[in-house]
Amino acid sequence: MTTAEAVAIAMLLDWYEQMAVIRGTEKAAHDLFLRGLVKGTTHLAAGHEAVAVGASAALRPDDYVFATYRGHHHAIARGASPESCLAELMQKSTGLCGAKGGSMHLTRADHGMLGSYAIVGAHLPMANGAAWSAKLRGTTQVAVAFFGDGATNIGAFHEALNLAAVWKLPVVFVCENNKYMEYTPIEAVTSVPNPAADRAAANGMPGVLVDGNDVVAVQHTMSDAVERARSGDGPTVVEALTYRHFGHSRTDPATYRPADEVEAWLARDPLIVARQLLLEIGATQADVDAADARAKAVVDAASQAAQAAPPADPATAFTDVWADGGAAWRT
Amino acid sequence: MADLTTYRDAVSEGLARELRRDPTVVLLGEDIGAAGGVFKTTAGLFEEFGAERVWDTPISEQAIVGAAMGAAMTGMRPVAEIMFSDFFACCWDYLANEIPKARYMTGGQVTVPLVVRTANGGGLGFGAQHSQSVENWALTVPGLKIAAPSTPADVVGLMASAVRSDDPVVFFEHKGLFASKGEAAPPGHVVPLGEARVAREGADVTVVALAATVPLALAAADELAGEGIDIEVVDLRCLIPLDMATVLRSLEKTSRLIVVEENPYQGGWGATVASVVADEGFEMLDAPVRRLAGENVPLPFADALEREVIPTVAKLVEAVRRLASY
Ligand SMILES: Cc1ncc(C[n+]2csc(CCOP(=O)(O)OP(=O)(O)O)c2C)c(N)n1
Ligand SMILES: [Mg+2]
């Protein structure tokens, strides 16, 4: 084995392990939800792991990422610990956002993960703003907005693409096209076959389709788009085709999806795809098993620790409205 | 005699001072660059600071305010202009759901130091979709600071505080005041957010006013003084933080209070003031708390109809007379 081959194996193993950690965390979140330990709602990203890990691998630590309510994978890919994410879902004081955000708002700002937003499409203009700011401050940072197929039909998406092109912003718009909004197939309500990529040309930027279940393909495509942004050539739309393994949210059984469709996509699980590739390029089954075991250990420990953590302190309801840390609204 | 300036020029002066002081301040909005803004409130800024500081945008209210938010989260102090406050409805998501909540729902991880400026209010015959006073829209959302100056000096002083604030500030510039004149702000003038000003001292009735209803109240004061009714006018200057201490202090003196607000009675900011007074000032009151507000109809176009709907000097004089003799 050459050094280059060894490096490639190590890199892919690392990505695989990151994906396995995300998958394990999502399964843990689902189990905890079924046990009544997670309240409210969750939108699990199991199935979308390759988009987050592949994209993250194409970014610098100081780049900016904006995600949606289906954003656990992006938080973890940008360095949020599974423990802090699960603790947030379980309303614990050790939660990533101090239990003030919840599943839909995971944020790790000190790693450039500037939030998860639950109003469809709202964060695309924000990503523009972060990219504009990078340009104004003379850095070479890039901003990435991840969003669903459903977001391509909201006004903010179209406003954001146009402004990004006009101002030539260092931003990448990444659509995670999982074929469905909540319960409606995206094709039933969209004027073009590729809801994100087909809209790029109308806004004067490239639109690229990529296999969102192939972490290597995502990393390649994102590297090109990020490089283009970083070198001042403007924005790109990347449409990653993927599929969610759970329903839309909570315990949605997703019976609106045809069985053969589900089966075909599960066979192309991003973890299976990466595993096959690993074995093809010379990793051993033992390497893969060891990565799986490490991921499982991380997730098990995270779940235990999150369950054991103290609940959020009610007094914190009155902190951090304002920058002075407080909530005073009058004299 | 101090220098006089217009409220309109005070807006560009206030912005220019902050642009000069802090290189992270940038402006964005529709027609604000070479055109100087549709109300000429950014006149001269593009010439002085250039295209890197003063950015013309497409007609994309969500993209404007959303970009301001993203820039504010990453080290800039953007000042976004929404041409007419009525258009807040087109980017309300950012003002209601995103900007005021980002800090809180991330457990304090992000800070959003931005200003959204807008031309607000009626009296110019712009009809139902370009004349509303919508400070009360912003008042419904915890997490926004709200400034609404009534004088040129306050425009400059509050702009300084708004731009320097680490919290998001919605800054209402009243269209009906753009041509009005007042003393120019001295160099380095800063008015803290959340400090009301007693615009006229008086002993008989407290009139709580904001933005264009401040000069309206002062005009009513002159008329009422002739009848021996001495009103105290409190200019709130900000709705959040709300300076109730100044209002209650004034009430202690006068025992009678009326709020004069341009927005419709339903859901108006005066209701919040009145409810605090009812809670905490009840024992000081010698008469019911009154609210002179807009009527609960859309704003009509014709002057004669608009006068029916929004507060006027005559309506305030009449309301104060009744309150004084209660
Ligand atoms: C503006 C807005 N409209 C509707 C909703 C309710 N909603 C939440 S998720 C969702 C589906 C979004 O689908 P998509 O963009 O494809 O993302 P996915 O959930 O598939 O990741 C809808 C309609 C919302 N949160 N925001
Ligand atoms: Mg979808």
Structure report:
The complex is a heterodimer of chains A (331) and B (326). Chain A has a six-stranded parallel sheet, sandwiched between helices. Chain A has helices at residues 3-34, 49-57, 72-77, 82-89, 123-136, 155-166, 197-200, 215-230, 259-267, 270-280, 285-308; strands at 64-68, 113-117, 143-148, 171-177, 207-211, 236-241. The termini of chain A are far apart. Chain A has one domain (3-318): Thiamin diphosphate (ThDP)-binding fold, Pyr/PP domains (Rossmann fold), CATH 3.40.50. Chain A is of the alpha/beta class and 331 residues long. In chain A, strand 3 (143-148), helix 6 (155-166) and strand 4 form a beta-alpha-beta unit. Helices cover 44% and strands 10% of the residues of chain A. Chain B has 326 residues and is α/β, with parallel strands linked by helices. Chain B has two domains: 4-183, Thiamin diphosphate (ThDP)-binding fold, Pyr/PP domains (Rossmann fold), CATH 3.40.50.970; 197-321, Rossmann fold, CATH 3.40.50. Helix content of chain B is 37%, strand content 21%. Chain B is built from eleven helices and 14 strands. In chain B, the strands form three sheets. In chain B, strands 3-2-4-5-7-6-12 form a seven-stranded mixed sheet, sandwiched between helices. A five-stranded mixed sheet of chain B has the order 9-11-10-13-14, sandwiched between helices. In chain B, helix 7 links the parallel strand 10 and strand 11 (231-235). In chain B, helix 1 (7-21) runs parallel beside helix 6, helix 3 packs parallel to helix 4 and helix 7 (213-225) packs across helix 11. The radius of gyration of chain B is 19 Å and the shape is globular. Chain B starts with a strand and ends with a helix. The model of chain B has no long low-confidence stretch (mean pLDDT 98). Thiamine diphosphate binds next to loops of chain A. Chain B: InterPro entries: THDP-binding, Transketo_C/PFOR_II, Transketolase-like_Pyr-bd, Transketolase_C. Chain B: This is Alpha-ketoacid dehydrogenase subunit beta. Chain B: Keywords: Oxidoreductase, Thiamine pyrophosphate. Chain B: Its cofactor is thiamine diphosphate. Chain B: Residues 5-180 form the Transketolase-like pyrimidine-binding domain.
